[in-house]
Amino acid sequence: MDRTKRPIPLPPPDTLGLGAMSLRVAIEQRRSLREYSGQPLSLDELSYLLWCTQGVQDVAGRSTIRTVPSAGARHAFETLLSVNQVTGLLPGLYRFLAADHALVEENLAPGVADRLVQACLEQGS
Known about the structure:
Elements: E1 8-9, H1 23-29, H2 43-54, E2 56-60, E3 63-66, E4 79-83, E5 92-97, E6 102-107, H3 112-119
Antiparallel strand pairs: 1-6, 2-3, 4-5, 5-6
């Protein structure tokens, strides 16, 4: 990662008014989709999704307590996003900085989405 790039702060998840849904309803309504609405995500929605999948709830010494489990709080993976339609972000590849709840641009070169499709065995976007 290029350390000279400035992180893009995301809206704090505790300030977002995205509504509530019970776990049961979420499980019952969950479906895999390959056809999308075409409407861009808002930065608030992306912020909330990232917090739900990798959000830092607390810091305990040198470890982070997150919204997902990890043996020994090691969280030995990173979240990279292929952004195509998020209001306020250029299309491209971003890295999520969980401890800062921010994004860093990794690759905004034209055609990066096409190269990702090729790397994922030609699965459609």
